[in-house]
Amino acid sequence: MIGSEIEIPTHFDPFTEAKELGGVGAKEYIHIRIQQRNGKKKLTTVQGLKELGLEKILKDLKKELCCNGNVVQDKEHGKIIQLQGDHRKNVSQLLVQAGLVMKDQIKIHGF
């Protein structure tokens, strides 16, 4: 045992892999929310999509869901897609089917 040398690490950081991948909690989420307007009218918002191609995504969503919508610039969250009506589940299914996001990256909010 005299000839064998054992290296004992002086500093071990268990989060080095997470830091290399972009930090703890670096997973980007897509937030789908619903807002009440007047009466029975509702508004579905989709936040967190990359700003590249939002107009094309909006066009496809409007065509599939048979509703109107637009892209709005928000101070905190950047560009957000707004759709008329309650389309939370349909939007999440369409985004997953199109291959834009994984199912575990979507968070649906609302009442």
From TrEMBL:
Q: Give one GO biological process term.
A: regulation of translation
Give the similarity note: Belongs to the SUI1 family.
Q: Which PROSITE patterns match?
A: SUI1
Q: What does this protein do?
A: Probably involved in translation.
SUI1 domain sequence ranges: 30-99
Question: What protein name does the entry list?
Answer: SUI1 domain-containing protein
Q: Which UniProt keywords apply?
A: Protein biosynthesis, Translation regulation
Q: Which GO terms describe its molecular function?
A: mRNA binding; translation initiation factor activity
